[in-house]
Specification:
The chain is an alpha+beta fold and 134 residues long. 25% of the residues lie in helices and 36% in strands.
Amino acid sequence: MSSDMMHDRSAVVMLYDNPHCAGPARIATMTYRPSDPYAMELRFVDHGRTVTWTFHRDLLHPSRHVDGMDLDVEWTDHIVRITRRSAASVFVRADSISLNLFLDEVFSLISDDAAATAAARKLDTVLPRLLNER
């Protein structure tokens, strides 16, 4: 992997509490870390505390679907609705330039093959340690 691929990527997006993306907005940060190639983070402040939602990166690809997650992402027209089953929904404008540039970069950075290789490499470092603990 090139050293450029090893750097975390982040984008600032605006979160709204309604599907019209109108009214007051909260600033949120979306982060992708190549060290965990299948994960994406959404971090924002809610009622004075920092909240981090971690979810499968493919949920942010409009043509992919991942089942069995605690978090759902729904793309409609120009809005991305992100719902955590144990919390409320938040909305992000899907036509946001920062969101689209971020997603283009993340999905071009690492293919599924590269993600599998990175995951296998991570497993190779953890597995021997787990086996020695027996």
